[in-house]
Design the sequence.
């Protein structure tokens, strides 16, 4: 694992020691960020839910995000995220060691420009999280929610107010959600 581009380009990131955390492959991460950079770039405040190693949020910081909020309930993931942040020399971040539901309640009153959502593939919590982001007004008007999920998960029951752009990368799908009224 490495930082693909930006001010931390080429920095190696520490990977988990076991298979409980499924880091985003460099190939998928590069595809994800190439699409974001071709649209609007990465800016503002980013929420990295289920941050794992912190690789997605760190890539966002490297490419221009002002601040990233990392959330994970796993102690080893939080330790790994902090180690990777220190390793690249990042400063503009917050780290929450808690369940995503608790974090989303704590973050009420804040607004995010990008949300990276990479839960365990079998969890099926994506629609609930997107609804919570909308109901708690956690998204800026032009925000993008990027969901990394299994090809087997068709993301049914997402709020109808979103336009979904899906990109299939083997068994992984990257779904970019943008609120319809923002377009």
Sequence:
């Amino acid at each position: 694992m490495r930082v693909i581009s930006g001010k931390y380009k080429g920095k190696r990131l520490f990977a988990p020691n076991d298979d409980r955390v499924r880091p985003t492959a460099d190939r998928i991460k590069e595809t994800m960020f190439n699409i974001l950079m071709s649209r609007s770039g990465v800016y503002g405040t980013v929420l990295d839910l289920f941050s794992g190693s912190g690789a997605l949020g760190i890539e966002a910081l490297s490419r221009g995000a002002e601040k990233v909020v990392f959330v994970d309930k796993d102690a080893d993931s939080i330790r790994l995220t902090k180690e990777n942040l220190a390793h690249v020399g990042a400063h503009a971040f917050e780290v929450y060691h808690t369940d995503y539901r608790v974090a989303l309640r704590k973050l009420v009153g804040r607004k995010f420009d990008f949300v990276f959502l990479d839960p365990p593939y079998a969890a099926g919590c994506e629609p609930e999280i997107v609804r919570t982001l909308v109901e708690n007004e956690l998204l800026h008007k032009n925000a993008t929610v990027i969901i990394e999920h299994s090809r087997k998960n068709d993301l049914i029951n997402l709020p109808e107010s979103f336009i979904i752009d899906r990109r299939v990368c083997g068994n992984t799908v990257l779904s970019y959600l943008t609120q319809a009224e923002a377009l």
